[in-house]
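Issue: ligand-bound run for 6-O-phosphono-alpha-D-fructofuranose - logging full I/O for the record.

Environment: standard queue, default settings, no custom constraints.

Inputs:
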Amino acid sequence: MVNKFKTFYRHIIEEERKYPEATGQLSDLLADIALACKVISLEVNRAGLIDILGFTGEENIQGEQVKKLDVFANDILTHVMKQGGHICAVCSEEEENFIPIEEQFTDNKFMSNKYVCHFDPLDGSSNIEANVSIGTIFSVYKRISKSGPGSLEDCLQRGVSQVAAGYVIYGSSSMLAYTTGNGVHLFTLDPSVGEFLLSNENIKIPKKSKIYSVNEGNQSKWSKGINNFVSYIKQNDKDSGRPYSSRYIGSLVADFHRNLLYGGVFLYPADSKNTSGKLRLMYEANPLSFIVEQAGGRSSDGKQRILEVTPENLHQRTPLFIGSEDDVKLIEKFLSEEK
Ligand code: P6P
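Outputs:
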């Protein structure tokens, strides 16, 4: 834990000052994302209350349409991105196609909308009624095209090209984790001041862990290599730290966040039903992989670094093995040996 009373915005400005060529646009963009997530946090925390107070159904007490929370989160993020002026395209789990955004003409000049954002606006939202932690995941790239609204080429870049990535977990408290390539830093939302305050700096994930996260209900559909890995870590062998403990919430951001702090490996393999895996490359696997590598961990699809996968489409799925370095390497070993 750190004892610096430092806001998220102050932290990103200090990061920006390390780059003399920085224009401040990325800092503003990240601040805009944090603002949107503060609004989402308010709604997520009210969601239970809305149900309790009987505002469910098509209209709330103000006669407004009560949106599904993930649609609400998507609308807020998209709106803030459009008004911010730094984005040429927004891609979202909730949108079939990317949303191209024109440059804005402000103070008698065109703003250079030089970034692209991918979002999973509210991952795990099906868990909200059970009061399980859910999250927003974001990923930021620099555009490839020169000007005007963004193109599909701007949106389909490999994860290694990300300039920033992060998530906000809406749990007992709302916490924001982000990286711009200089380590992973964690902030806790203090609702009384309405700021994300620095709580952990330069987080490092333990190299080896004793936690694995997988939906064992899919065991009959797994490949031989995954079955062999999971059986291996369940065996009793004190010297090699086995058996591991099983921790699976079924909400990616919650499972990832716990493993980042405590050590652990999360698996969502391809199987006979989800032959390319279930999770999405551009707005789940890539941002979390940038974060985990910046924290000293590893992330792979079983054959290669997630960050080096060449995307073919916006909603592409991928197998995902992410977390403590030694554990991910062990999975890759079992997969390489499966006959
Ligand atoms: P399963 C939630 O629906 C989600 O997209 C991720 O947040 C989570 O890790 C995964 O799916 C859970 O999938 O098949 O285990 O329910």
